[in-house]
């Protein structure tokens, strides 16, 4: 499928099938624009409101269905995903690229991407809600463009390339003709490049515009700037005019260049310039670069305040009194004996318009009342504070400072691709000026950056070792030991000479309750929910929120708590020093996630469905539809995948086999339902390796459960010999130890593997043994699973009467037991049978039921199976574009989960569609992939399913002799089904003269002899 790309900035253009064309501006196209801009799933209700906000919901949804249908018919709408309750269209757009570049502060890229307002000047007639969204998106894109122009212009101006800067300021001013700041910047840089007349003409144009349109005049600052230009005081090499001149102060001048915080600097500048933001606190952990950032902010804003900007470090102040004395000294405030210093300082500030930048306030909680008093008494005062904790004052604005942006994991690491890498290399070259970094070393630099999460101080300290230690070794060492992150540089503050010392200082300031909570939090992997954090730490919410306030942990928009990797590493080292506390924390963590898994147990979920239906019947309300949600989604567990595994292995290490058995079905169902087969297989293999066959019953029970999970995942991955081996081993162990339930399941999995290998008699025998056991045990759910496998084999062999009866019985059993997943699988199978027997309407009904259920419980394998079946249905109905779309979506899902058995059939079905479309080369590519995959895993029934398509492709390419060989092999194979034989004979009729029989000599060595390559 050709990739689709949308250019939405300016007049919209679609790039599709190697061509670019303007897009017709209509409602169906507008729907695609909205979905493309969203980039993720959007609910139908949201889309309906977008177009018909005042209509009844049913009418709005009906209108939306019409627009969706029309959008699906657009030739460039490939990949549009339409589900019962939501839609998604993931395509590349210049809008997404612009926002990504903006976030990464790649300003030149933003400028190049911005082609004009979103969708040009177009609006959707009589759709005010859609147009309101359009206005918001336009404003966001334009703001990104304006920020990029401002940043790039400032960069050129600092480099004394005033021509480049003036051009960019001109473009900035063109966005808003009344933007006085942009015009001032343009006028100033024109004058600095020597174009004084041009600068003055630009000023006059702006003066006329203000007078004509607004009846106003330029600001005094602009007039002062123009006065300096006329007087010849502004020239290249000067300080940039009166607006930039400040009184001399003792602000420290950094010895290193400012790297990677330009976006934060711009955001802080905008906040300080707001009239309602008079107290702004930059909050971050030690070493995050707060001091460097506020120093740069003071420099940038010095000329914005009539009485200048002052920076004061309060690191050495131990009390509010000492802090006030240091501020007064920095501002040259003197007092006599009778006057209180605080009063004198407030009086001094009240007479001025100034910016006060106060650094290192975290230890000065008693300074807050003075700051509040100063702001109240001095209306012209703005304060920017840098601290590890918030000041907790009314009117305080907070700016959380994290690490520098990190290199993307999906792209090659470059020297200027991220701020974190750039800072590391800059620091490294200060100690090793001639050092160059090859590709492998840049990858290691990226690894360092990620481990320290872009923390500037950690990057500087790590880079200092480049002179003596290979980068790869540095990366290895800091992953296990904080001591490498240290320096002997005498000009560094003591607190910044090592990460450990910095964190020691922070640790000393914490209460015992906070220390305990932070240590226990360090056992989590990948963060944790608030519920998990409270349960494992035993800390109350105020303690956790206090740690958030102190920048030691952070809380995401989704509510998860996390901490900086170096803080976690430090806290875990502290925890490890107390083995009793360490083991208690690990056990608490394991117990929490074991209980969480038990909540998701498939049996319990089925029980909830049964109970709800029972209540519905008693209340006389309608019973739930098949596939009704049982309350939990496996996707909810995904953020805690690493925590689940750590808890599982902790339980294994401590021998809690019964607890593991209670959680095992949930953990393995999590891997299976979401298609995480590779990870699930690793966990299961490690578990089996740690368990014995001769241990207590609880240990053997667990071993059987996990071996059966390995057999199931092996079959799903197409590793049929592995599935056979694991199910046979589980069967032998379960029979020897009298575990009847496991014996039945092992027989079922053994039958499934035999079926896929074409060993139908052996499979039937295994299924019959499992059925006999389950009828004795009375487990309806597992009996349904066995009958479903048996019916699937009947369907594979095209024994439709037996298959239909079996699947109907399955639906009854699954509905009775509340097993929504298995019931949805049975409906999908019934849909397949209906389609195979020509009942398109019946097939469609069953597919719809199963798809709704699969999407609700997010069962990726089921969704891909239904979409694969729809390829056949839509192809038979002549709806080839829809068939192709379903096939490609199914293919992508199966490739992601490595479902090779499913991939074989989807490749074959897509090849059939390509043949109907006349795309013979594409058909060959698909069918040959399917044949090779089937041969690799020895899936003979799947191979036979593909052969008719392969023979048809060979015939259409004129390769009759090869086609004849394939058809002969198929006709003579003992496992060939009636429909495969009929298809083969039909193709043979077009191959040989009527009356002649095809060569009935059986080809030996079918797989190696087949001509897989054209």
How would you characterize this protein structure?
With 1014 residues, the chain is mostly helical. Among the domains are: 5-140, no CATH class; 160-244, Tetratricopeptide repeat domain (Serine Threonine Protein Phosphatase 5, Tetratricopeptide repeat); 262-400, 3-Layer(aba) Sandwich (Rossmann fold); 419-501; 779-862, Serine Threonine Protein Phosphatase 5, Tetratricopeptide repeat (Alpha Horseshoe); 899-1009, Serine Threonine Protein Phosphatase 5, Tetratricopeptide repeat (Alpha Horseshoe). Helix content is 62%, strand content 5%. The protein has 45 helices and 14 strands. The strands form four sheets. Strands 9-10-11-8-12 form a five-stranded parallel beta sheet, sandwiched between helices. It has a four-stranded mixed beta sheet with strand order 3-2-1-7. A three-stranded antiparallel beta sheet has the order 4-6-5. Strand 13 (554-555) and strand 14 (561-562) form a beta hairpin. Helix 25 packs across helix 27 (641-653), helix 25 (579-599) crosses helix 28 and helix 30 runs parallel beside helix 32. The longest helix is centred in the N-terminal third of the chain and has 31 residues, at 128-158. It is globular. The model is unreliable at 239-249, 487-492, 622-631 and 992-1014 (pLDDT under 50).
């Amino acid at each position: 499928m050709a990739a689709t790309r949308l250019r939405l900035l300016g007049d919209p253009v679609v790039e599709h099938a190697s061509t670019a064309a303007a897009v017709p501006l209509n409602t169906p196209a507008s729907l695609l624009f909205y979905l493309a801009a969203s980039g993720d799933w959007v609910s139908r209700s949201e889309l309906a409101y977008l177009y018909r906000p005042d209509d009844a919901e049913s009418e709005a949804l009906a209108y939306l269905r019409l627009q969706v249908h029309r959008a699906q018919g657009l030739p460039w709408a490939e990949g549009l995903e339409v589900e019962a309750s939501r839609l998604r269209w993931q395509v590349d757009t210049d809008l997404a690229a612009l926002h990504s570049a903006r976030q990464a502060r790649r300003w030149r890229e933003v400028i190049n991407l911005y082609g004009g307002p979103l969708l040009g000047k177009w609006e959707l007639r009589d759709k005010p809600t859609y147009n309101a969204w359009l206005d918001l998106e336009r404003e966001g894109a334009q703001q990104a463009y304006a920020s990029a122009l401002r940043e790039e212009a400032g960069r050129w101006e600092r480099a004394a390339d005033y021509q480049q800067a003036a051009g960019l300021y001109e473009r900035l001013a063109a966005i808003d003709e009344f933007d006085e700041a942009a015009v001032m910047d343009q006028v100033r840089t024109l004058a600095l490049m020597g174009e004084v007349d041009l600068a003055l003409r630009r000023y006059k144009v702006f003066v006329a515009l203000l007078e004509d349109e607004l009846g106003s005049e330029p600001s005094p600052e602009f007039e002062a700037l123009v006065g300096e230009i006329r007087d010849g005081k502004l020239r290249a090499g000067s300080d940039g005019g009166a607006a930039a001149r400040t009184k001399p102060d003792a602000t420290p001048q950094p010895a290193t260049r400012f790297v990677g915080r330009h976006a934060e600097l711009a955001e802080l500048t905008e906040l300080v310039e707001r009239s309602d933001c008079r107290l702004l606190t930059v909050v971050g952990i030690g070493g995050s670069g707060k001091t460097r950032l506020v120093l740069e902010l003071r420099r940038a804003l010095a000329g914005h305040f009539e009485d200048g900007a002052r920076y004061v470090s309060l690191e050495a102040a131990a009390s509010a009194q000492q802090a006030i004395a240091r501020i007064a000294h920095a501002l040259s405030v003197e007092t006599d004996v009778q006057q209180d210093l605080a009063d004198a300082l407030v009086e001094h500030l009240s007479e001025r318009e100034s910016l006060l930048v106060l650094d290192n306030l975290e230890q000065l909680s008693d300074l807050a009342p003075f700051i509040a008093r100063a702001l109240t008494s001095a209306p012209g005062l703005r304060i920017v504070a840098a601290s590890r904790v918030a000041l907790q004052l009314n009117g305080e604005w907070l700016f959380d400072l994290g690490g520098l942006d990190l290199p993307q994991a999906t792209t090659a690491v470059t020297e200027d691709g991220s701020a974190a890498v750039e800072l590391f290399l800059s620091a490294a070259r200060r100690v090793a000026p001639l050092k160059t970094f090859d590709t492998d070393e840049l990858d290691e630099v990226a690894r360092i950056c990620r481990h320290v999460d872009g923390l500037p101080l950690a990057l500087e300290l790590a880079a200092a070792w480049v002179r003596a230690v290979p980068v790869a070794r540095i990366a290895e060492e800091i992953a296990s030991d904080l001591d490498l992150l240290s320096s002997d540089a005498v000009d560094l503050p003591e607190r910044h000479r090592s990460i450990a010392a910095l964190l020691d200082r922070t640790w000393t300031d914490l209460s015992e309750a906070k220390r305990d909570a932070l240590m226990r939090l360090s056992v989590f992997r990948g963060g944790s929910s608030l519920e998990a954090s409270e349960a494992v730490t035993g800390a109350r919410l105020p303690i956790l929120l206090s740690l958030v306030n102190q920048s030691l942990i952070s809380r995401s928009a989704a509510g998860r708590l996390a901490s900086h990797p170096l803080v976690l590493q430090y806290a875990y080292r502290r925890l490890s020093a107390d083995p009793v506390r360490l083991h208690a924390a690990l056990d608490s963590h394991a117990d929490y996630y074991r209980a969480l898994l038990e909540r998701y147990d498939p049996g319990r979920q089925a029980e909830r469905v049964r109970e709800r239906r029972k209540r519905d019947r008693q209340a006389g309300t309608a019973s739930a539809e098949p596939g009704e949600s049982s309350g939990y989604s496996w996707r909810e567990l995904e953020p805690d995948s690493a925590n689940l595994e750590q808890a599982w292995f902790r339980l294994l290490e401590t021998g809690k086999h019964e607890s593991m058995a209670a959680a095992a079905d949930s953990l393995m169902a999590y891997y299976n339902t979401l298609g995480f087969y590779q990870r699930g297989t690793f966990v299961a293999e490690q578990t089996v390796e740690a368990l014995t066959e001769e241990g207590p019953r609880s240990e053997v029970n667990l071993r059987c459960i996990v071996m059966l999970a390995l057999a199931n995942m092996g079959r799903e991955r197409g590793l049929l010999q592995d599935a056979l081996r694991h199910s046979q081993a589980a069967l032998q162990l379960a029979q020897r130890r009298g575990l009847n339930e496991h014996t039945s399941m092992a027989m079922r999995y053994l039958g499934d593997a035999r079926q896929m290998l074409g060993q139908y008699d052996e499979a039937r025998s295994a299924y019959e043994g499992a059925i006999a056991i389950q009828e004795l045990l009375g487990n309806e759910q597992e009996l349904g699973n066995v009958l479903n496998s048996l019916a699937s084999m009947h369907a594979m062999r095209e024994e439709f009467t037996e298959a239909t009866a079996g699947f109907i019985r399955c639906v009854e059993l699954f509905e009775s037991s509340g097993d929504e997943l298995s019931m949805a699988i049975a409906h999908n199978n019934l849909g397949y049978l209906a389609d195979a027997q020509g009942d398109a309407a019946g097939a469609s009904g069953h597919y719809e039921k199963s798809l709704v259920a699969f999407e609700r419980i997010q069962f990726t394998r089921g969704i891909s199976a239904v979409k694969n079946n729809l390829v056949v249905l839509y192809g038979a109905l002549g709806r080839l574009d829809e068939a192709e779309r379903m096939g490609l979506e199914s293919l992508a899902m199966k490739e992601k989960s490595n479902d090779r058995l499913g991939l074989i059939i989807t490749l074959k079905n897509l090849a059939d569609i390509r043949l109907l479309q006349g795309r013979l080369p594409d058909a060959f590519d698909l069918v040959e992939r399917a044949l090779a995959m089937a041969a690799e895993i020895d899936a003979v029934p799947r191979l036979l399913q593909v052969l008719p398509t392969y023979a048809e492709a060979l015939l259409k390419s004129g390769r009759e002799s090869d086609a004849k060989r394939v058809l002969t092999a198929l006709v003579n194979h003992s496992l060939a089904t009636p429909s495969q034989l009929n298809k083969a004979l039909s193709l043979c009729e077009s191959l040989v003269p009527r009356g002649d029989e095809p060569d009935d000599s059986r080809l030996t060595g079918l797989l190696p002899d087949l001509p897989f390559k054209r």
